[in-house]
Amino acid sequence: MIGNALVVEDDRGVRELVRRYLEREGFSVVATDSGAAALVCLAEQPVDVVVLDLGLPDVDGEEVLRAAAKDDVPVVVLTARGQVGDRIRGLELGADDYIAKPFSPRELVLRVKAVLHRSDTGGSNHSSQVSLGGGRLVVNQDRHEANLDGSPILLTPTEWSLLTTMAANPGRVFTRYELANRLRGYEFSGYERTIDSHVKNLRHKLGERADSATIVQTVAGVGYRMGLRRDSDT
């Protein structure tokens, strides 16, 4: 079994299609058309990934998205709300990927796997632990932990991948296009705004303890870089 997937979709045909494709790939699937039931499932059962339609009949899908993101459960949004602005809002609320209907079920499965892969491995293949800024920021790949000023930072898989990618290469400037390719799944018009949304979320979490602008720096007209130096380089 690859993992436990929660499918939240009010269209029965779509729901069963997604279930079948995920089960073929080895997922254990719980499927529901109810946002309320999805919230209960998130609270009471182990869930590794959520495939979520935002247009639910009872509870707004955004409420389910917030609950999953709060518990660090990756979410792939599957919805008819396909405008770039809708996608950006979903990503800002904590979604790790966003697929507009109509969709390819094979592509959906690949994206779900990609999200889980990011959650498991992070964004780089460098050493398991990196310390930056005199120990201010410590990222441990093996433990899937990040600490800032001694306090843990709870990140979505995509935020984790952004942080680990930049932390493994401090000072290097990553273009938005390069970050999108590394994170995968954002081959649509407006991908630059997608990366900006994830960086905004990451900065918000870093900013709870410090001035995040010194950690994730913007390079105007290019992209982003890690502003702290690796301790071994100082």
Can you walk through the features of this model?
The chain has helices spanning 12-24, 35-44, 61-70, 84-92, 105-121, 157-167, 176-183, 191-206, and strands at residues 4-8, 28-32, 49-52, 75-79, 97-100, 129-132, 137-140, 145-148, 151-152, 174-175, 216-219, 223-226. The protein is an alpha/beta fold and 234 residues long. It has two domains: 4-121, Response regulator (Rossmann fold), CATH 3.40.50.2300; 129-233, Arc Repressor Mutant, subunit A (Orthogonal Bundle), CATH 1.10.10.10. The strands form three sheets. The protein has a five-stranded parallel beta sheet with strand order 2-1-3-4-5, sandwiched between helices. Strands 6-7-8-9 form a four-stranded antiparallel beta sheet, with helices on one face. A three-stranded antiparallel beta sheet has the order 10-12-11. Strand 8 (145-148) and strand 9 (151-152) form a beta hairpin. The longest helix has 17 residues, at 105-121. The radius of gyration is 18 Å and the shape is globular.
